[in-house]
Amino acid sequence: MNQGSYKEALKAFADHSHEFTVEPVTNGLINQSFKITGNDTGSSFLLQQINHHVFTRPEKLQQNYMLLWKYLREEDIPFIIPEPKHFINDKTFFRDGQNNYWRVFEFISGTKTLNIADNISQAKGVANIFAGFTACFSKFDSNQLHITIPDFHNLSLRFRQFTQSLSNGLNERIRKSQQLIDDLNLRERYVNFYETIIESDEFRLRVMHHDAKISNVLFDTASEKLICPVDFDTVMPGYFFSDLGDMIRSMACSENENSNRYEELNIRKDFYDAIVSGYTEVLNGQLTFSEKKYIHLSGLLMIYMQALRFLTDYLNGDIYYRISYPEHNFDRATNQVILLKNLEEFLIHNYHFKF
Question: How many CB atoms lie within 10 A of CB 164?
Fold first, then answer.
């Protein structure tokens, strides 16, 4: 914690005559957050420093959030997202003397986050809430939102980066990865379909979370009831497959993306069914005919994209993802390719869906 910046941001938000207790919130991977509690009032709020190395235009994140917040309030839509708070100058965004960027949200007490879905009820609930988030903005012009991470779920770009790594990457790693390379090249049809999606009016741009995982949902500590999604920095215009595909990738799989217990990797049918039904039952009236027809492509597209990204980073010498050991990205890519093959077989067997 940078004490100077932290104190400056807190002073810009609250009367400096008050005394506060500060607790770091450690479950975030990018931004630095603190639970601030007034010693005299007992009330809390969340003070967050935005990582401007990841989000190079941090003011755009806050502008996006305020657009979403104001829309929900103006349209009187009963969907919870944390309330943004104002600094003393009546702004919701603060830049300190060291060029760090800060914002404040209400702290929703009595809640917790989970890292994995322990049961199908949780999986379905998470799917419900992310679908509900998108559904709330069905009449909102998503083009008003700033692009906070350009080409984040652009499968065509990810495939081009993969292809470039085959020419510019480390030769020894390319040789070692030949089977994975062949498996991914054989599935270029997913890239071709993505290009159909972005060119067709049958696949609509919507407000998508783009980081739809269970750890980005608050649960009531006592009742386990889902309260609201959080972490909206990647909210941008996107397509139907992004959030659903991410949830299938992260919750329907029996092992996480870092597991090298490849023989244990499989798609859990009850979880898959819960995620897809939970998502589509909320958005069903808004999905187009083509989106419904190709709904089962969601997981395939997102797993394929992640396999490309892991392998590309491995071939390029591990320049993007943080690794714990030299072959970490190779193992991650292997994990995702096996998962992709298993999902293809799963969909044929259970849904007679083959693409």
Answer: 13
